[in-house]
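Dear support,

I submitted the protein below through the web form. The confirmation email said the job was done, but the results page showed an empty box. After a refresh the structure appeared. I'm attaching both so you can tell me whether what I see now is the final result or a partial one.
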Amino acid sequence: DNVSNQISTLEKEVNEALKEREETQKILGELERKKEEIARELVSVKEESKKFTSQIEALDNELARLDKEYEESLRELNELRLKMQAMKLQMNRCWEQLKIRGYESPLDESQDILREKDVDKQLELMRRELKGIGAVNQLAEVQYAEQVSRYKELSVRLNELEREKLAILKFIEEIEQKKYKVFMDAFNKINERINLYFSKLTGGGSASLKLENPENPFAGGVDMIVQFPGKSPILVSGASSGERSVSAVAFLFALQEFSPASFYLFDEIDAHLDAFHVERLGELLSEEASKSELQFIIITLKPEMISKADRIYGVYSQNGISHIVSTTFKGAT
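What the results page shows now:
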């Protein structure tokens, strides 16, 4: 019953750990989603700002062109009117002087009439050109002011979004730096310990972890390079099944030292190991259990492993019913 309670407690702790891991992954996923939404919003706001800026520039250009044409036409019209008035005044002065000198009969004014007709003709042409320009938009100034106000509002909003973007990017950068630091600290510690445990298990071998992408660890995986005594270094993927089992056990021990648990349950962890490595593994389990006050529950069929246990439980079937016996071998004489 005590073992069943311990196993039940272990299952609860494992489930809680899995739930915490899922919640952490959800939080990270939510942060990534918010990051993408903000990036899309920034792009949309920039495009909208460019659109309004282009419209304002077009309105400015059109208003400037109309103002220039209107002012030019008005100036020419005023100049013609002034010239015509000056000519009439000059003509009247000349006529008075002729009267003083005794010339009462009218003079030939055909040339002056022609000139006056030319002036009228030019005035008519100017009126037509002014009419062709069309009516001046009296609301242009108001519309221009509205566009300027809108442009200022968009500029302020754009600046706010830029500041928010910088703050978010800074926050993301801090998260990335913390994530990188935590990962590298864990990686380096595990890398140091895995070599120690591998050497104990193999009697002098070495093992190390290698990042596929050292510049960006999260963009690649992790390889394990192992070297058994008397052999060349190889990737663990190219090792035999027994060698891979030894490497996996060393990696598990390195992990448990970094993030220890109350006890561990191994199901035939020594299935692919020879007698030498089974005995080494048994000694290492016994050493770790006594040193760290850990509890290891091992399901095994190997006598080399059984001989290192503090307590042995045997399970057998009789008449369709499972029976359990227990005894102690370690330390017996």
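Response: this is the final, complete result; the empty box was a page-load delay. The beta strands are 206-211, 222-227, 234-235, 263-267, 295-299, 312-318, 321-327.
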